[in-house]
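Standup notes
- HV: blocked on the assembly model, inputs below
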Amino acid sequence: MSSALLSVENAVVDLPTPRGNLRAVDHVDLAVGAGRTLGIVGESGCGKTMLSRAVLQLLPKKARLSGRVMFDGQDLTTLSAEKLRKLRGRSLAVVFQDPMTSLNPVLTIGTQLIETIQEHLELDLAEARQRSIELLAAVGIPAPEQRLAQYPHQLSGGMRQRVAIAVALSCEPKLLIADEPTTALDVTIQAQILDLLAREQQRRHMAMIIITHDLGVVAGRTDEVAVMYAGRVVERAPTPALFKQMRMPYTEALLAALPKLDVAPHTPLPAISGRPPDPTRPLKGCSFSPRCRYSAGRCAFEKPQLCSAETPEHLYACFHPIAARVGA
Amino acid sequence: MMLQAAPNPLMKVENLVVEYSVGGKTIHAVSDVSLEIARGETLGLVGESGCGKSTLGRAVLQLRQAVSGKVLFDGHDLTTLKGEALRQMRRRVQLIFQDPIASLNPRRRIGDIVAEPLVIAGVKDPDERRRRVAEVLSAVGLDPTLVSGRLPHEFSGGQCQRICIARSLVLNPEFVICDEPVSALDVSIRAQILNLLEEMKARYGLTLLFIAHDLAVVKAVSDRVAVMYLGRLCEVGPSEQLFARPAHPYTALLIEAIPVPDPDVRPTQSVPVGEPPSPIAPPSGCRFRTRCPRADARCASEVPELRLVATGQFAACHHPLI
């Protein structure tokens, strides 16, 4: 995948904890092409956020990263802090779950937008101000000129997230990482924010990574999805194939466990028994095997590697994949 | 007005009004809400944050004082009860919260946490308490001998919610209010807890008020669903019917906005822009009118009453969809 805008190669993130080493990301390979959207799905603690921090080079100080993060022809793991600072915000932008983590509560919306724009682009104050107004209008904020003088606490959660998106888009990034961008928002606002991200992504031909725990969020809005479990990518496929021809039992179980609107009330949900393994006590075999209904034989002591299904784009890590099970 | 056919509802909320004062301004959290819940029924209560659903739950338990209105539990008006009489009644009504970890005292052992309601209720015999604690812990799927001596931090979110459920059941309540019991949990754990609540309901003969923002979660467990918007009830009806044929435009909007885990279902782009107005100054007339595609002059001047739109289904709308 030499044409990819971003490629993560064999990334491993280790975090020292009082209970021993925690392997948050375990040999992950990923690639995103220009203008494409990748969804990363997983439950809390699966490593999806640590992986995105590794891409942004914003890992906790104690964390150790190995592997390569190639972005736009450069290996980010080798760049100096100064070069990284220039890159982040300019061509690599991020939107977090809670907009208050990225917005400064004591600065006005205008100051934060204008500051970001002037930091990265050579515009004078009037031009930067004009651009800020255009951006706020583009993300659907009514009366953008008046908003410039307001502080984050004067806006609702949905409006703050729109501002955070405006800041992220301000320098026309090549890649936008949205880490649970709608989890803190109400369902009607969530739909609006996801529509906004999709629209801006297409208009700007920007690559995007959406990180979420909600399979519903990625279903209609991504080109490709990677499912993570216990630090590893366990299945990766073009979005339609992931939902229609999944191979990994974890993907199947995750979809089945979702309450659905077309099912009658009081129908017992096919829950996944147990819980994810302790990341400081890695399992010898497949991490999902203790909870997997198809687990048998070598699942408990041998780790399945990613291998491809019919198409080279569809990868899964399982000894007993779903479609192949019939007659096997 | 009759909202429900049951002749003798276990819980009946009549014209409940709850207001808060914040910085000299009044927040209209719950405005004139009436509801009935039959014995053995699960009523789901859905709405977005700030719609007053949690405040309603708290006002039912008298953890929030109502400005006016009645809360009739088994025929007794809880709003007029005080002291020992209210404490007696509260034993029959319990509450499960959203954040299971924050609702457990981090310094106390699980056995003591679950036994606390028994201590307060005056069960003096320690053997009797231990027996009851062991029974409910086993019922929620935890081994009493393994967990009783441990502290909350040794458990995951899903296990803490099991402990909270055990604590709420130890006094054999009749009515349990579940306030967003699964929204802090991961998908794989959420299904376990929803199934557990259903099992407990059958085993202990419970009546539930299930408050949540997630429609699919609410539908999974509820016989009937009530939809709230900005302090008022928009629609009440049997779950299946309400989701198949919503009458209130707000219910329809909520259903439409749910992301569907199916790549063939293109996300709808028709969700109107706009956000819920402030409960400090709710719109006149119908509170949803500022975001409603069907709103007209009448909606601004006249508060719509809940009216029968189909069998068992009521909607508060001047221009219902059915």
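- HV (later): unblocked. The CA atoms of residues 71 and 255 of chain B lie 30 Å apart. Residues 231-258+269-321 of chain B form one domain.
- Next: hand off to the docking folks.
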